[in-house]
Amino acid sequence: MTEKGEADSLLVTGGAGFIGSNFVRYLARVNPQVKIVVLDKMTYAANPHNLDGLSSNPIVIRGDVCDSSLVEQIIREHHINGIIHFAAESHNDNSIRDAAPFIHTNIYGTYVLLEAARSHGLRFHHVSTDEVFGDTSVEDVTRFDESSPYHPSSPYSATKAASDHLVRAWWRTYGTRVTITNSSNNYGPYQHVEKFIPRQITNILTGRRPKVYGQGKDVRDWLSVEDDCRAIWYVYCRGRLGQTYLVGADNRLSNLAVVQMILRMMNRPLDEVEFVGGRPGADRRYAIDASKIRRELGWRPFQANFAKSLEATIEWYKTHESWWIPAKQMTELRYQQEGH
Ligand code: NAD
Ligand code: DAU
């Protein structure tokens, strides 16, 4: 398939975070002629080293998506003709402790960018989550699709739902050229150690026990970050304007099953798991029906073998200790204070 970007000067918000930096790497590889400008506040979740070693270096600007004058200045100075919006506060546990930055960045920040897209006539792609649909029971066999009703549970997912509604309103009201992807749980390199899979791997690597919330029965639908980045780029380039596309790879597993796979792969006994207190209002199960993006855009997951990609992820954390060690102690201290 030929991947041809509409934009030759792209603003990537949150490009120093997990998915954003994987996306910048992906795009630099498949479409090196696209000029990439990263706007990132460099919160605790970012790591400027995420963008090291790229042959075509992106321009990286430290700043807030809520700062409309800065966004305006970047668009003019760099002749931006498209925005891919990753920047967000992304961690559910943090949103339960303090929702304020989530409301500010995820809702107001999206509004600022939509206004910029509207006034400059830019193409705008919004990176969102399957969590906007809420959850199903663990026993359920149904999957979310593009017509599923919005039913978010946590402060984080409520802010993402609000931002999706803003994007749709800008399409309907102003005709801003928007698309949205709602993806399931990503995993892979450069994911912060606060998230489930990296936390368990790095716990084992630092002599801690893997920590599983509740009884570990909740189910997540795992998607390799590279497959998600390719889906986002397909939708940006060829998605129908005003449309939403769900992205998932049908890798549904209970949290306990994932931890047991990690323990086996790292040659540790299965009873090393420690069960800790769960999240208030925790979502039980996510499940994505990705038929629309498969049918319309020919996307499919290349890394459909979860076990193989999980092994590769474990290997990445083993060989990139200097990347994650600085964040590990503080993250575990925070979890300890919260009883997780
Ligand atoms: P992340 O927390 O790893 O990265 C977020 C990035 O945004 C960081 O670099 C941070 O510094 C930046 N940022 C935060 N506030 C900002 C602000 N006000 N201005 C500019 N930059 C700011 O998150 P992630 O996991 O890479 O998620 C990226 C996007 O994808 C988010 O919108 C998230 O909701 C969505 N998403 C994530 C997943 C997942 O499994 N991780 C799945 C579906 C959708
Ligand atoms: O579904 C997409 C969403 O996936 C994204 O929108 C979010 O940005 C991303 O953080 C992720 O949200 P989750 O809450 O599903 O991911 P997290 O890695 O925090 O937790 C996954 C599951 O594992 C969840 O059921 C809680 C559980 N968990 C988490 C941690 C950190 C544990 O059992 N132990 C842990 O230590």
Annotate the secondary structure layout:
Elements: E1 9-13, H1 18-30, E2 35-40, E3 59-62, H2 68-77, E4 82-85, H3 92-97, H4 100-120, E5 123-129, H5 155-174, E6 177-183, E7 186-187, H6 196-205, E8 211-213, E9 219-221, E10 223-224, H7 225-238, E11 244-247, E12 252-254, H8 255-265, E13 274-276, H9 291-297, H10 306-319, H11 321-338
Parallel strand pairs: 1-2, 1-4, 2-3, 4-5, 5-6, 6-11, 7-10, 8-13
Antiparallel strand pairs: 9-12
Detailed description of the structure:
With 340 residues, the protein is of the alpha/beta class. The protein has a domain at 9-191 and 223-249 and 283-302: NAD(P)-binding Rossmann-like Domain (Rossmann fold). 42% of the residues lie in helices and 16% in strands. It has 11 helices and 13 strands. It has helices at 18-30, 68-77, 92-97, 100-120, 155-174, 196-205, 225-238, 255-265, 291-297, 306-319, 321-338, and strands spanning 9-13, 35-40, 59-62, 82-85, 123-129, 177-183, 186-187, 211-213, 219-221, 223-224, 244-247, 252-254, 274-276. A 7-stranded parallel sheet has the order 3-2-1-4-5-6-11, with helices on both faces. Helix 1 (18-30) links the parallel strand 1 and strand 2. It is globular, with a radius of gyration of 19 Å. Mean pLDDT is 96; it is low at 1-5. Nicotinamide-adenine-dinucleotide is lined by residues 13-14, 16-20, 39-43, 45-46, 64-66, 86-90, 105, 109, 127-129, 160, 183, 185-186, 192.
